[in-house]
Amino acid sequence: MTIRALLWLWLKCIRSWKSPLLYWIFRYTKYRNKKLPNKWHKVKDYNKTEFSRVLAEYDYLSDPAGGFFDYSPQEKNFYFLDRKTSRDCDNWARMWFWWCQERGYPVCEIKILETKNLRKTIFSEWRVPSHSLAVAKINNEYYLFDYRPAGGFYNLKMALKNNVVGYKKFVWAINKTG
């Protein structure tokens, strides 16, 4: 079985239920007394530059336990909640995914897995080097939404190669389409 097939299986058979489950567990335990800000309705209509500026106002926050408790937001306003953990690449990807959906752009939330030294990384650092991003097709060009937008690529593969984490050798799989 190829690494790409394993990534796809992980996304469809494990992450598809684990991420939402963890989100709701954290939402109704750790964040149960925190009211979500009502910000999405205002920023969803911003253009790409303005929306990117708003997202950048919020700090990157790594997931607990080195990413073991990795969950993507299931509510749009959760991104804007004041918190101390869990605002990482999948949060940015999900926000861009929803922003593109608002405009009717065909969009995918994609997970990429770095394959360079994969075995060494997994067994020595106990982590899987992966990253989440969104890609949308706008006016027959592909736009990468990887923390901030970049675009005008002629195909999906070229957009993915411009990832901001610097992965040169990677496999990818679609996590969500819209």
Give the topology:
Blueprint: H1 3-27, H2 40-43, H3 48-56, H4 89-103, E1 107-114, H5 118-125, E2 130-138, E3 141-146, E4 148-153, H6 156-161, E5 170-177
Antiparallel strand pairs: 1-2, 1-5, 2-3, 3-4
Q: What would a concise description of this structure say?
A:
The chain has 178 residues and is of the alpha+beta class. Helix content is 38%, strand content 21%. It has one domain (3-177).
Describe the model.
- The protein is an alpha+beta fold and 178 residues long.
- The protein has one domain (3-177).
- Helices cover 38% and strands 21% of the residues.
- The chain contains six helices and five strands; from the N terminus they run H-H-H-H-E-H-E-E-E-H-E.
- The chain has helices spanning 3-27, 40-43, 48-56, 89-103, 118-125, 156-161, and strands at residues 107-114, 130-138, 141-146, 148-153, 170-177.
Features:
single chain; 178 residues; 6 helices; 38% helix; 21% strand; globular
CA-based gyration radius: 16 Å
Strand content: 15-25%
**Mean pLDDT across all amino acids:** 90
**Order of strands in the sheet with the most strands?**
4-3-2-1-5
